[in-house]
Amino acid sequence: MMLRITACLIMLILAACGPLNEGGTGVQLGQAVLARVAGAEQPVQQSAGVPQDALLANPGKYLRVNARATGRWLTMVQAGQNGSRVTWIDSSNISLTLENGIVVATRGLPRDLMGSDVSQTWSAIRAGGGNSQRQHDFLTDIDGISTELLQCRIASQGPEVIERLQKTLNSVRFEEECRGEGLGFTNVYWVNRDGGMIRSLQAISPDAGYLQIDVY
């Protein structure tokens, strides 16, 4: 119980994890906290298993994922591809499936995102902003599937510089605000000049919270 309380306090401080229910931290994610994600150098944990020089020398080979609810860092490699959907996996068999850098499914996290349709989100980002609709299928506590339909608004916040592993990366920052009947969250995407997602902060589920995903 004490561990859970401590974790919740950390989640509230970071404003990047915890409940995504309407009125929870997902709704209250503030501009100041989101700005820190982009501008601050993110520490590389020794437990990640891949040194910095390997990350820098192998562009496109690794994902670095920060599970904000637990503070755990994951280093992932590509495990498979089906069209535009790419699955990445780490040494503990936690996996993410991304479509154009947007999470469409997870496995191995608390209350996994079993599947989602995010095609309209990517179209709005490519258009420089707009409205979209998402459908998320979550794993329930009794191993069923709960479906949530969300209405989203994507807006460009303009150019933003990311400092990462002693490198300066230019990007355009987009924020996606989504609301459903019982769920609300704000995702953030940093897109480079080539249209590639280099960093994102994405809500997964009410139990898994947010993932910060860096593409190397």
Task: Describe what this molecule looks like in 3D.
The protein has helices spanning 2-14, 31-39, 52-57, 119-126; strands spanning 62-67, 72-82, 85-89, 95-99, 102-107, 113-117, 129-139, 145-164, 167-179, 184-191, 197-205, 209-215. The longest helix has 13 residues, at 2-14. The protein has a single domain, classed as YmcC-like (YmcC-like fold). With 216 residues, it is α+β, with helices and mostly antiparallel strands. The relative contact order is 0.19.
A few lines on this structure:
This protein has 216 residues and is α+β, with helices and mostly antiparallel strands. The chain contains 4 helices and 12 strands. A hairpin with a 5-residue loop joins strand 3 and strand 4.
Any descriptors?
alpha+beta, YmcC-like fold, twelve-stranded antiparallel β-sheet
List the helices and strands and how they pair.
Elements: H1 2-14, H2 31-39, H3 52-57, E1 62-67, E2 72-82, E3 85-89, E4 95-99, E5 102-107, E6 113-117, H4 119-126, E7 129-139, E8 145-164, E9 167-179, E10 184-191, E11 197-205, E12 209-215
Antiparallel strand pairs: 1-2, 1-12, 2-3, 3-4, 4-5, 6-7, 7-8, 8-9, 9-10, 10-11, 11-12
Would you identify the regions where 5 or more consecutive residues have pLDDT less than 50?
Answer: 1-19, 22-47
Mean pLDDT figure = 80
Overall tally of domains: 1
Structural class: alpha+beta
The CATH homology group name: YmcC-like
Output the radius of gyration: 16 Å
